[in-house]
Amino acid sequence: MAIPLRQLVEQVGGQLQGDPDTLVSGIAPLDAAGASHVSFLSNPKLRTQAAASAAAALILTEADSERIGSQYAGARILTERPYAYFARAAQLFAALAAPPVQPGIHPSAAIDPSAKVAASACIGPHVTVEAGAVIGEGCTIDSGCVIGRDTVVGADTHFHPRVCFLAGCIIGERGIVHAGAVIGADGFGFANEGGAWIKIPQTGRVVIGNDVEIGANTTVDRGALADTVIEDGVKLDNQIQIGHNCHIGAHTAMAGCVGVAGSATIGKYCTFGGAAMILGHLTIADNVHISSGSLVSRSIAEAGQYTGFYPLATNAEWERSAAIVRNLSGMRSRMRELEKTVAMLTSQNKNEQ
Amino acid sequence: MAIPLRQLVEQVGGQLQGDPDTLVSGIAPLDAAGASHVSFLSNPKLRTQAAASAAAALILTEADSERIGSQYAGARILTERPYAYFARAAQLFAALAAPPVQPGIHPSAAIDPSAKVAASACIGPHVTVEAGAVIGEGCTIDSGCVIGRDTVVGADTHFHPRVCFLAGCIIGERGIVHAGAVIGADGFGFANEGGAWIKIPQTGRVVIGNDVEIGANTTVDRGALADTVIEDGVKLDNQIQIGHNCHIGAHTAMAGCVGVAGSATIGKYCTFGGAAMILGHLTIADNVHISSGSLVSRSIAEAGQYTGFYPLATNAEWERSAAIVRNLSGMRSRMRELEKTVAMLTSQNKNEQ
Amino acid sequence: MAIPLRQLVEQVGGQLQGDPDTLVSGIAPLDAAGASHVSFLSNPKLRTQAAASAAAALILTEADSERIGSQYAGARILTERPYAYFARAAQLFAALAAPPVQPGIHPSAAIDPSAKVAASACIGPHVTVEAGAVIGEGCTIDSGCVIGRDTVVGADTHFHPRVCFLAGCIIGERGIVHAGAVIGADGFGFANEGGAWIKIPQTGRVVIGNDVEIGANTTVDRGALADTVIEDGVKLDNQIQIGHNCHIGAHTAMAGCVGVAGSATIGKYCTFGGAAMILGHLTIADNVHISSGSLVSRSIAEAGQYTGFYPLATNAEWERSAAIVRNLSGMRSRMRELEKTVAMLTSQNKNEQ
């Protein structure tokens, strides 16, 4: 579905230079874009490519527009942050292309009579909504979701298929939860008695802010006594595990396969690379960035980038280096021995001179 | 729902000192507990806090009770293991607060006529129970579970929503399986022929003992020919993968994101920190404890704590240390060279003296 | 169900030596096999065990058959690759033992009128098939699966329970997707604006070839603009995460808990051990083998085995080695200092001589 550039800038902003009636139907990379596409320049290395692009319109900064000058003949949309503009423009095109959502409840859904489902919500096939649940205006609850007892789902939130959102949990507005995610399973809490484990009931909730996205098959456990809290704007990728009583600060993002053990407190604006692992009861400051595959075993009080993974090598080289790592204290002892001997030799030589 | 302290000690045990008619309705931490709460002292560092607690009753050892003396005015429940008592008391309060379970089969469930579902079991919406399955007394099978052909689910076991318990698998009594777990998917077994993989059918089962808890979105594969076995009292957290033909000893506990490759044999009373990974065909003794993020690449015959993860550092420091790790054999060669030279110098100096 | 050896070699091949009317009903290991079993010899260490096996028939190479000679009295099936033969024979026995699949659509399934389901397909309870989906001949779609809008499922593909196969995705013939897998969730793509994340719509698909197997609770994300591609014969174990726009070459196999970040291009015939992690935008050549627990942080241009994990030790030993790793640059400085001093001493000694 094509729209004129006029509509794009009306809805997304930016300053249009060029024919407002030019019709565009989507976003494409600089080198693939044609006469019906919008493209964008955010990486300075691609400036030459941008100048040669056949896109109907280019999203770029005013400075880049001046640098490119007359080499590029299409329309221009000037903005301070072309990449963010691209994201918003892509959202607009995606919304135009999306099949219309039909409000209403599929006849196969099992809705408890005491649940409150907003009239504009869309409830798919085989969904279960338990007693006391509240589902807000504009929500989409896809096939096979389970919405537990006394939960609250904020307006315009979208649960993809087979999400479990369990008893008492709360999510804010405009949330997106991907297929298979489980929010509100019991935390892992036991008392040990003579080797056997006695379950500690997990009676807290998961409380999630606005504009949070949670990936496919990710799990977020309910708190033990208090709540597990995920603040506004947090983005969690797939296959992540968040333990009970964690607190994740606003706008923090975690890539796939990250694990956060119980009672960790993580700041705002942090990022975690894939498969990073955070031990329990730690505190991580705002603006901390953890590299992929790194284990965080101590609290981090200072913003910055932190890393800890064993460097990859050919297997033969790794065998050699790992054998030395296994005996680094032996190497250190030899070094100390050498230092002593050399000090003695030095002193002998001095005495002789 | 409040109960008198008398009822608590009748059901959970311990020696009550104080008014048995005092009504209590739940557990709270020492500093948050009020006149309707029970609290507990298991960490000696919190003794001062316990003495000042406003809890209606304190769970503690006789020794701690004497140490606190008259500083604390509420009721006391004396027990040898306050933390285990707390867990059991919390279970009692949680059971009192839980909504009543209605035995019966939801009309949307698809139950094969040859399956046997106990009259006291509760089968939720959109559940599938296949031919020959047997579901015991007091079981709760939540929304969207799939109970495969010829499975056996022991009495009082609870499957949370969307559990898959696949053909032929067996679980004992009082089990808890959390949402999205998959028990009995095929193990990963292939024969390689000229680069391509030929599937080896996985015809074993998963056989699970009593009092086992399995976390959300955890997967336990069926055996190839023999069975995958999980003994009594094992506790598995979320996002865990257990490969085919593994044998996990009684009361072993694994934290989130652990992976166990096929045919590993793990002892009793072991613990595995989050994201620990155990290679296949290994044998791990009883009472082995593996730290988070550690890869177990060899069998372990001795009880104890084992660790193996790269220490976290600022990215700049890690860059430096990783560059050296990559060339540790070079460093060792230089050390050997130095040792030779120093030995020669030492011998020269001796000759000269 | 027993079949004569004649039928086995007719269907799977190989050269039979022995009575073709001998009835066999399954495969068993060499030491457990009895008069109704077929066993196989692929590991040369088991030759003595094979010679003593009570199996009705042995699958083995001609060379091994000669080595064993007359020690073994049962029938023999000669083949060049006994392990691959075993896999195919086991498939035959498994097919004979499997309950018959009834084509047709369970009445509880919700099938959009515009979807095309082949007459020979079997659609289980509580399945959702959305508009425009095409499900091929001989497919089995188990309980609770969600087949998204405009998807294509090739002939003879089997989706185990609760698979999500989301809008627009394509899978070829003879695929197997295990329970809880999610194919086609959104990739993790955001533009950052002043700390907050703006979602980049994910409009690509997941395109999967023939003979692909995908494990339980594994997730494969759809592409951002282009597609995520999984070529023929790829085998993915459980709990794996494949990011958006990845391209995985034919016959590559990944063990459980592997993570592949977005836009990685992986060659053919590669293998990845459990919990290996591959960073985004990398290129991995054909025939690369990554050990378990290793992080791949750079592209790999040469075939071979690569490793990178911290060796396991007792916790006390690890504490010592980790402390040194944290300060390896200090150790290198001391080494340089020593080298300088020793060079000076050597030169002094020479001057003196």
Notes on the structure:
Chain A is an alpha/beta fold and 353 residues long. Chain A has 3 domains: 3-97, Udp-n-acetylmuramoylalanyl-d-glutamate--2,6- Diaminopimelate Ligase, Chain: A, domain 1 (3-Layer(aba) Sandwich); 104-306, UDP N-Acetylglucosamine Acyltransferase, domain 1, CATH 2.160.10.10; 317-352. In chain A, 21% of the residues lie in helices and 28% in strands. In chain A, the strands form 6 sheets. Chain A has an 11-stranded parallel sheet with strand order 8-11-14-17-20-25-28-31-34-37-39, with no helix packed on it. A 10-stranded parallel sheet of chain A has the order 9-12-15-18-21-26-29-32-35-38, with no helix packed on it. In chain A, β5 (37-40), α2 and β6 (57-60) form a beta-alpha-beta unit. The radius of gyration of chain A is 28 Å and the shape is flat. The termini of chain A are far apart. The model of chain A has no long low-confidence stretch (mean pLDDT 96). At the A-B interface, β22, β23, β38, β39 and α5 of A face α4, β40, α5 and α6 of B. β39 (304-307) of chain A pairs antiparallel with β40 (313-314) of chain B, so a sheet runs across the interface.
Please tell me the overall pLDDT of chain A.
96
Residues in β-strands, percent of chain A: 25-35%
Helix residue percentage of chain A: 10-25%
CATH topology of the largest domain in chain A: UDP N-Acetylglucosamine Acyltransferase, domain 1
Rg of chain A to the nearest angstrom? 28 Å
DSSP summary, beta strand count of chain A: 40
The CATH level-2 architecture of the largest domain in chain A is identified as 3 Solenoid
Low-confidence stretches of chain A: none
The two chains with the largest interface, and their residue counts, are:
A-B, 71 and 77 residues
Read across the widest sheet of chain A, the strand sequence of neighbours is 8-11-14-17-20-25-28-31-34-37-39
How would a textbook summarize the main sheet of chain A?
11 strands, parallel
Count structural domains of chain A: 3
